[in-house]
Amino acid sequence: MTPRDTPPGPLLDVRGLTVRTDDGRTLVDDLSFTVGGGERLGLIGESGSGKSLTTLALLGLLPDGMTATGSVELAGTQIVGAPEKRLTAVRGRDAAVVFQEPLTALDPLMRMGRQIAEPLARRTGLKGRDLRTAVTDALVRVRLPEPDRIAHAFPHEISGGQRQRVALAMALACEPSLLIADEPTTALDVSVQAEMLDLLDTLVREREMAVLFVSHDLAVVAKVTDRVLVLKDGRAVEEGPVLDVVTAPKAGYTRALVAGARKLESALDLRSPR
Ligand SMILES: Nc1ncnc2c1ncn2[C@@H]1O[C@H](COP(=O)(O)OP(=O)(O)OP(=O)(O)O)[C@@H](O)[C@H]1O
C-alpha cells in the first residue's frame, strides 16, 4: 500500500450519520462507528435495514431526494455536505466500492481492459505497453484465466463471477485504504461465492487494506471480518467482535439472525486465523 499522509485517528469515523428523505422519512438513524486502518468491519442486517444507504452516504453517493446529516470523516476528509470535487478526489483513492451487481460499476460499451486501465493510469501514470501489462497483471491478480481475452471482452461477454472479479480489480487498481464491499457475493452461485470471498480475503490481507463488508448473511460476514455492526430499521442494535456477537448475541434481533444463519458452523470452521 502506498503510504499517504493520513491524520491520526480512525480511517473512517462515522458519527451520528442520519439519512432522511425529502418527505421526512428517516432511513438511517444516528449511526456511529469507526474503521481503523487495516481493520475489517461487517455491516449486517436484513433487507431494508439501511446497509446500502449507509455505504452510499459514506461516499456521498446518495440518490436524489435524500440528505445525509451527521459526520463521515474518511481519511480526514468530511464527506457529509462536501462539494462534488472533493468527493471525486476521495472516491477510489481513499475508498473504493464493489457492489452486489458488478454491472452497476461497469460501462456496458467499454472493453474490460480499458475500464481497468483508467483508474490504473490515474494512479500510476503508466501509458502504452506498460499500462497494458499492468492491466493484464491486475486481471491475473484477481485470478482470471485468459486475461487477454477478458481484457478485450465487453461486460456482457463474460460471466457474472468474472465481471465481479473485474469490478474488484478496478476497485483495487487505485490501492484504496478502504474497500467497501456491498453484498459482493450475493448475486453469485454458491461455489463461485466461496472463491470470491477467498480471493477478497487474500487480496485485502496482502495490501493491509481496511474493509467494510456489507451483507445480510452472517455466515459470510463471519468469514471475512473482525468486528460486526448489526443494523435494524436504520439503527445500530449491536456491535462487537464477530465471534462474540455470533457466540453470545445480546440483542434479540441479533439472536434471531444467528439462529437463522445458514451454514454458520461451517463458516466458522473455515474461518482462517487472522
Ligand atoms: N431511492 C430510495 N427512495 C426511497 N426509499 C429508499 C430508496 N432506497 C432505499 N430506500 C428505503 O430505505 C430503506 C433502507 O434501504 P437500503 O437499500 O439501505 O437497505 P439494505 O439494508 O441495503 O437492503 P438490501 O439488502 O435489500 O439492499 C428501505 O426501507 C428502503 O425501502
Automatic annotation (TrEMBL):
Record GO terms (molecular function)? ATP binding; ATP hydrolysis activity
What name does the UniProt record give this protein? ABC transporter ATP-binding protein
Subcellular location(s) of the protein: Cell membrane
* Record Pfam families: ABC_tran (PF00005)
Ordered alphabetically, the record's keywords are: ATP-binding, Cell membrane, Membrane, Nucleotide-binding, Transport
Question: Is RNA-binding among the key words of this record?
Answer: no
Q: Which GO terms describe its cellular component?
A: plasma membrane
Write down the InterPro entries for this protein, in alphabetical order. AAA+_ATPase (IPR003593), ABC_Ni/Peptide_Import (IPR050388), ABC_transporter-like_ATP-bd (IPR003439), ABC_transporter-like_CS (IPR017871), P-loop_NTPase (IPR027417)
Q: Which family does it belong to?
A: Belongs to the ABC transporter superfamily.
Topology relative to the lipid bilayer, per the entry, is: Peripheral membrane protein
Instruction: List each copy of the ABC transporter domain by range.
Output: 12-258
